[in-house]
User: Fold this.
Amino acid sequence: MPLPVINFFSEKITFTPKDKRKRKAWITEVAHREGYQIKEINYIFCSDNYLLEINRTFLNHDYFTDIITFNNSEKKKELEAELYISITRVKNNAQEEGISFEEELNRVMIHGVLHLIGYKDKTKQQKELMRKMENSSLKLFKQGVSRGTPK
Assistant:
């Protein structure tokens, strides 16, 4: 299997995440632990209004959200996707939760990957499991990943 490709882009804002190599290795490890390989994941960081327009156009939802995930995978156990993240919403969420922007950004980034893997968050039980998986993934990020780091 070729090395995973994880890209970071910004649309209508200027934003570049810190620790890109560490984040790539972490995301790859979370997927691997769930039995998935990453083919290509593109994170697109954007404004609230940009993401609202995507929400309206593609999902017929008329509200702000922190992330929208488009699953482009063609093979089982292989992840290929575009994840749009509102940096404005992440900042607001972090303030409301009393946590750092970086921690909330990581939570939202891995939340999208967990959706791709199959975790849901519609019911109370699903939300609890999703939060447990997010927390375990965040702990892994803090500990650092010892495997090879993708470029």
